Amino acid sequence: MSGGGFKIFKWAVVTVAIAFNILVYFYPDILNDLQQCKWHEFSDSGRLKSKLDFINGLDQSISDKILLNLPFLQDIKMSNTKSPYDLHNDVKDIHLLAFGDPQINGNWASTKYIKRLDNYGNDYYLGHIYTTMKERLSPSHVAVMGDHFSSQWIYDSEFYNRTYRYVERIFTRPIEYKQNVLDVHERHEDYDWQKWLSEEVKLDPLVRFNSRVYNDVYDWYNLDKKYPNFENPLFINLTGNHDIGYSGDATWQHLARFHLLFGQNNYVINYNKGTPEEWRIIVLDSLTLEGPALQEEFLNYTWSFVNNIEKYENKDFKGSTILFTHIPFYKREGLCKDGPEHKYYVNNTQEPYKNGKLRSQNHLSYDSTQKIMNIMFPKDSKNGIILTGHDHYGCNSWYNLLSDTWEASESVKPTGERFAVREIVVESMMGDFDGQTGILTGHFDKFKQTWLFEFTYCSFLVQHYWWSSKILTVVAVFLLSTGFLFKW
């Protein structure tokens, strides 16, 4: 190739590399409508403000893009208080990012090097999505909707390896928030799940429940911080069938190591309790709600948690509930990609003790759905929302109370006996589903005296575009270096 031809090729590659990197790093604005990749602005919400007056004077569509991509220019003094309330004494909005089913693959001795490289890159692809959205929006809460890993049938050693990748490459956090994971990974010892089992079975049911009730927690590391931590949001990790298994094959070992590294499987966090702005998060382990189960005590523990919510927490509760589960609630065939389905082990000769037990499910059963809805959204409470995972394609439904029965539909029914509850099945963040980020905004309406919720998706692209940006960057640097060396 002549010097002139090399220059043309070099600058062509550099141009394409720059274009791909612009796409990858500014995808929220390039690939999405502006309203999709920002917190929802309600009728009485203020717009994003800048420290610089000339930016505030621009058209909002322009100023928002500047401030979302350069968040250090935002004027945050109004909300930057050590309180759940801002300087006007208005309760701060709920800002939550939801990520569906990352399903991280693992490496084995037989894994080919090209697949190892693919897994390595996929970690950073997922991490790029999280980092981009966190820096752009500064959420108060982040929820991963279960199925952190691709399979529950892995040894403790591999579980530690994937959890290490989860906190180091994907959902990166300061050292104090991941120290436990790093320590466990460094020791790399099989977890003594039998000790955890013996401690759990001895627990009085009410003691177990009370250990899973929290108030005004915004930071698992600093429990005394009773206000949103926008720099290090509160993480909510749900159990998925690929984390602990369906109830027909979930074991004490599965649940013990999840508790060790990801936290409890059932809990409630109350916020602003006893005030008009009261709301709560309920994390419910939907994998241990139905059976027949391999460990029936798991079902007893989860239903005990549910019943104690009704007995102790609902007594004076008049606020809004954000309910998190992995398995979606029952709905008729055709409303979502996955219809209702339960499968059971039959003629399992290798593990005959599983025969007759629950093997898989797409939804919770009709009866479980009715019970859970009635307890989690009691009559005296206000507007609420459900976030689930499991169905990678996502779904959007409304549960209307009609003749004392919760029925799912595509819209709110005006004949409903009280408020309808929206269920969002969060689309997967995997590349095959365009790397989705769910954005939930909660806003307290002072006139209606209730929380209002809005949900949008911010979409990326299949992981090949991320890979292309990296490969093109390396090639462009090589060509620029070669051109400089040979004066081409």
Description:
- This protein is of the alpha/beta class and 488 residues long.
- It has one domain (93-462): Metallo-dependent phosphatases (Purple Acid Phosphatase, chain A, domain 2).
- Helices cover 36% and strands 16% of the residues.
- It has helices spanning 3-25, 27-30, 53-56, 60-69, 113-137, 156-170, 175-187, 193-202, 205-210, 252-262, 296-313, 366-376, 463-486; strands at 94-99, 141-144, 213-215, 234-237, 267-271, 279-283, 320-324, 342-344, 358-361, 385-388, 395-402, 405-409, 421-425, 437-445, 450-458.
- Helix 11 links the parallel strand 6 and strand 7.
- Helix 8 crosses helix 10.
- This is DEHA2E05522p.
- It comes from Debaryomyces hansenii (strain ATCC 36239 / CBS 767 / BCRC 21394 / JCM 1990 / NBRC 0083 / IGC 2968) (Yeast).
Write a brief caption for the model.
With 488 residues, the chain is of the alpha/beta class. It has 13 helices and 15 strands. A hairpin with a 4-residue loop joins β14 and β15 (450-458).
List the SSEs and their pairings.
Layout: H1 3-25, H2 27-30, H3 53-56, H4 60-69, E1 94-99, H5 113-137, E2 141-144, H6 156-170, H7 175-187, H8 193-202, H9 205-210, E3 213-215, E4 234-237, H10 252-262, E5 267-271, E6 279-283, H11 296-313, E7 320-324, E8 342-344, E9 358-361, H12 366-376, E10 385-388, E11 395-402, E12 405-409, E13 421-425, E14 437-445, E15 450-458, H13 463-486
Parallel strand pairs: 1-2, 2-4, 3-5, 6-7, 7-10, 10-13
Antiparallel strand pairs: 1-14, 5-6, 8-9, 11-12, 11-13, 14-15
Helix pairs in contact: 1-13, 5-6, 6-7, 8-10
